[in-house]
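Incident log, structure service

09:12 report received: a user says their structure output differs between two submissions of the same chain.
09:20 pulled the input from the user's history:
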Amino acid sequence: MGGHDHHHGPPYKVPDASIYKVSDVPQLVEVERALARRGLKDPWLRNEVWRYDVKEWSTHRVRLVRFLFKGFPLGFAAFVATIGLEYALGVDYHAHNGHGDHGKHGGH
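09:34 re-ran on a clean worker, output below:
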């Protein structure tokens, strides 16, 4: 009905938790060792492994640059369009139209 193609079930596949291993991430292995030195263990540490998958999420630096400059192309295009529009309309922010504040400060 309605001609829409509805998918049955979620549009994604949740990976099996067994594919994430703390031993695959040197940073998390160090966390695990530091906890063990204090007699502690984090049973949820495996849940952080996906964050270090460089193939899937790239490096921290690349993610940071991507985040910081995500809207830059659109913002720069809007900036250029604004400048062009102001130029086309003859907007001049430096023009003195006789309504300045000369003499309002008591001779300062």
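09:41 both user submissions now match this output. Likely a transient worker issue. Closing.
09:42 reviewer note: The two ends are 78 Å apart (CA to CA). The chain is about 40% helix and 0% strand.
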